[in-house]
Amino acid sequence: MFRSKLKTIILALSVTMMAIALISFPQESVDASIRGLNMWWEIVFPSLLPFFIVSEMLIGFGVVRFIGVLLEPLMRPLFRVPGVGGFVWAMGMASGYPAGAKLTARLRQENQITKTEAERLVSFTNCSNPLFIFGAVSVGFFNNAKLGIILALAHYLGNFTVGLTMRFYGQNKGTINQGKKRTPSFKQALSVLHRTRINDNRPIGKLLGDAVMSSIRTLLMIGGFIILFSVINKLLFHLGITAFLASGLEVILLAFHLPVELSTPFISGIFEITLGSQMTSQVQEATLMQQAVITSFILAFSGFSVQAQVASILAQTDIDFKPFFIARIFHGLFAAIYTAILWNPVFERFYNSEQPSKAIPVSLIGEDSWLQKWFAVLTEIGPLITIFALLAYTILLARKDSKY
């Protein structure tokens, strides 16, 4: 009872302090809101919307179950999750935060995975997409496209390691009955695909409409969290709380031979990855390797902003958030360690020499790389895609309401 009352008092005081801070720093709050809004409607919304809609369609048509049957021999021994986890993992890496959480929650709602399997799966299927790592961080902040190779390698190797680690989570808890173990066949997978499609008897138009509605609803929630945490991060900085927390972090940074000037960017990155990565790239006292180590941790930890988005999605199911949070700490540590380990044998050897490297195609990381071009195009047409999608959502919502 006492803990419950204490929690209530702390939450009430926190919200009150935030309200006072908003009144005290109105211009800073507006600037932070605009910054968060721009990031959402230029990059996040247009890049995630197609993946969300296609994922919903693939689940409805039974393609996810089809993939799950074929990937069962790979995903079950490695990560102790069903084969459908392979689809979630691939979509999570391709589309970025928080696609893995959304798809995991969707599979749990359909009872395709158990609660424990869902908690294992969500822990390693949420990661940053290559477009953000190469386009926004490497090119946009560091002006060094080749740095993206190290950041991406460390990020996805760390993610894989988290999956292997979390397979030991909930060892004594049950899994969905798999029946007799046998090698899955293509014919069996097709049979599962057909049964799933028949059981979901929605017409194609209805399925597409539901996919669009569900995806945009989730993205609106994501946008709210991005704007909120952008404002919170700015207010914490102006209130001196970021500097206070950073001062306590300086001892830890010195222990790892990192400059104390990285403490403030690190704390900012704990709350919001974009601002933290940008601030890290501007620290002149740190070497590029030191900046990369901190940025890797920030990207892997994903920030309280992304974690709040995931918590909101998981709250719609019985999936516990705690394993996901612990996995984010593991991912941050693994990614930072991999960056330090791979720096000399990979970056210094192949990408930081005067000789042009042939290890990775120029079209991928060069100054005119397709990733860089795609990021620039997305920034230009992103707002138009967002406005068009929101108009479509409004029309669909109006039609739905008119039927009742």
TrEMBL record:
<protein>
    <submittedName>
        <fullName>Sporulation integral membrane protein YlbJ</fullName>
    </submittedName>
</protein>
<keyword id="KW-0812">Transmembrane</keyword>
<keyword id="KW-1133">Transmembrane helix</keyword>
<feature type="transmembrane region" description="Helical">
    <location>
        <begin position="131"/>
        <end position="157"/>
    </location>
</feature>
<keyword id="KW-0472">Membrane</keyword>
<feature type="transmembrane region" description="Helical">
    <location>
        <begin position="207"/>
        <end position="229"/>
    </location>
</feature>
<feature type="domain" description="Nucleoside transporter/FeoB GTPase Gate">
    <location>
        <begin position="44"/>
        <end position="132"/>
    </location>
</feature>
<dbReference type="InterPro" id="IPR014226">
    <property type="entry name" value="Spore_IM_YlbJ"/>
</dbReference>
<feature type="domain" description="Nucleoside transporter/FeoB GTPase Gate">
    <location>
        <begin position="219"/>
        <end position="315"/>
    </location>
</feature>
<feature type="transmembrane region" description="Helical">
    <location>
        <begin position="325"/>
        <end position="343"/>
    </location>
</feature>
<feature type="transmembrane region" description="Helical">
    <location>
        <begin position="235"/>
        <end position="256"/>
    </location>
</feature>
<dbReference type="Pfam" id="PF07670">
    <property type="entry name" value="Gate"/>
</dbReference>
<dbReference type="InterPro" id="IPR011642">
    <property type="entry name" value="Gate_dom"/>
</dbReference>
<feature type="transmembrane region" description="Helical">
    <location>
        <begin position="78"/>
        <end position="97"/>
    </location>
</feature>
<feature type="transmembrane region" description="Helical">
    <location>
        <begin position="48"/>
        <end position="71"/>
    </location>
</feature>
<feature type="transmembrane region" description="Helical">
    <location>
        <begin position="374"/>
        <end position="398"/>
    </location>
</feature>
